[in-house]
Amino acid sequence: MPASPIAAHVVSCCRCRFAGDTAAAGPAACNTQPDTALPSNATWNCSTTTASGSTCVAECITGFTAEQGTSLQATCTNGTWASSGGNLNCTAPAGPAACNTQPDTVLPSNATWNCSTTTASGSTCVAACITGFTAVQGTSLQATCTNGTWASSGGNLNCTAPAGPAACNTQPDTALPSNATWNCSTTTASGSTCVAECITGFTAVQGTSLQATCTNGTWASSGGNLNCTAPELSERKLLMQQDRLGLLKSIRFARAPQENVAQHTRRAAAGVLTRAAASQTAALAPAVVPVSAAASVAATMGDKEPGEGKDT
C-alpha cells in the first residue's frame, strides 16, 4: 500500500528540522591548573586547559625526588578539579656523607680543632693553638671531610709558649753591709726576691733588712738598712769576765812589792859580803883571795854587782 502523502510530508519535515539543528554541548573543561595546594618543591604537569575527565599529576621539581609511596593528582570533572593522593613528599637527593666527629688526626701539644662534631663533606677543619700558645711561623695542620672521611694536610703545627720576662743571672748588685750575704743563687726568675742575711755568728738588728727583686733581668733593692751585729754576752758571762780581769790585776799588783823586797834583800846581802871581804883583805894583807872564791861569793849574791849594795 503506497504511503500516504500526508505521512510523507511529516517525515520530510522532521528530517529537515533535525538536519538544521546543532550538536548538544558536552561537560565543561578545566581551564586552570588544579587549585589543590602543592607540597614544597613540587609542580603540576598539566596545561591550563584540561578536558573533563582528564587527570593532572603533581611532580617534584628538578633536583628533588618523590619519596617512595607518596603522590598527588587532580581530576577535572565538568570544569571542577578534585584531588586524590595528597601525601606527595619531595626530598633532595642524598649527597656525600658528612663527618660526624672531629678529625682523627693526632694533634700536637697545646693545640685543638676549631670545628664542631658535624662537618659537611668538602669542608675543612683547621687546628689552632690553645690560649697562651702561638703557632711557629710556617707551621699548620688542617683536615678536609670527604664523604664522611677526614684527610689531613700540613701536619707540622708547632705551638710554643710566648717568651716570658728574662731571669736575673747574677746575684743582686746592691752593696751588702758588713757581715752579710745574699741567700739566692746566680739564676733567679723574674718576679722572685732575694733576701740578704747575716753570716754565721752575727744577728740582724731588729727592724733592719735588705732584699732585692728581679724584674725582667734587672735587680731592684728594698729595705737597705740591714745591720748585722755580733751576739751580745749574757750578763753572767760579762760579770765572770769582769771578775777575772779584776783578779788578774790584783795578783799583778800584789806581786810587785814582793819582787821589790826580794830585790832589795839581795842587794843588801851583796853589800855586806863585799864590805866583810874588804875588811879581811885589809887585816890579812899578805893573803890573796882567789878569783874563783870571789866569783862564788858574787854568784851567791845574785846577778847584781857588789857595788850596788851601797845604795841601800
Automatic annotation (TrEMBL):
Keywords: Disulfide bond
Matching SMART domains: CCP (SM00032)
InterPro entries from the UniProt entry: Sushi/SCR/CCP_sf, Sushi_SCR_CCP_dom
Domain Sushi residues, every copy: 30-90, 99-159, 168-228
Organism superkingdom: Eukaryota
Protein name: Sushi domain-containing protein
Organism annotation: Tetradesmus obliquus (Green alga)
